[in-house]
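Lab notebook, bench 4. The sequencing result for the construct came back, and we need a structural model before the next group meeting so we can plan mutations. Quick request posted to the team channel:

Model the 3D structure of this chain.
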Amino acid sequence: MAEFTGRTALITGASSGIGVDIARELAKQGANVVLVARRADRLETLATELTALGVQATAVPCDLSDAAARTALAESQPNIDILVNNAGLGVFGMFADAAWDDLANMLNVNITALTHLTHLFAKPMAARGYGRVLMVASTAAFQPVPLYAAYAATKAYVLSLSEALNVEFKERGIKVTTLCPGTTASEFFDVAHHKKSMMVEKTMMTSEAVAKIGVDALVAGKSSIVAGVANSLMAFGTRFSPRSLSAALAYKIMKP
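Done. Here's the predicted structure in token form:
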């Protein structure tokens, strides 16, 4: 029997990329899935696909940047066993040149929405004595990243929050796993308006591979996992490198 058979998982950002493939992996594990994103048509298509695997798949269009919508989402889905905080976006370019509205929206989705959803769903999980949370951070969480300065800072927040909550929640029967992907083939770079460098292209993983690593880590109850050997070596290496040097190297890699 698969680890999550009969459990219900809610996946944010489930209309593309890593979110779609995490939903597929959880459905293979026997979990019923609640698919959350803004694009209803994509969610419905994925729900139809996953229903064919013998699980219940529900499409719930939602704008996670709206606090009231997040609260309504939690109220409509009171029996979530597994929360996947995957929704997020990046803003690429020189910080001083970025539009404030773009930065504010990113901070709202990457930090505020993720924190709010975790708070909303953790309470009923704790009351039942069971819960699993998969947070999608990034290898950018381990170092400063010029041209993605604010984005990398949001992911450092996600990693720190998640590792602390994993300890806090343990006595309540809730485990928190943090997935840290490197560059991944998805819509991320298009949304961020980033023309990828050759180095970014060469190190890119598929969203399918990243999702499997994340769900396997969730099943195993790991506190965190970096996707891919090269990314793991990079993340580990930042411990021994001056942060100014790490930032300079990241700038060279990200610069088109």
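The two ends are 47 Å apart (CA to CA).
Will bring this to the meeting.
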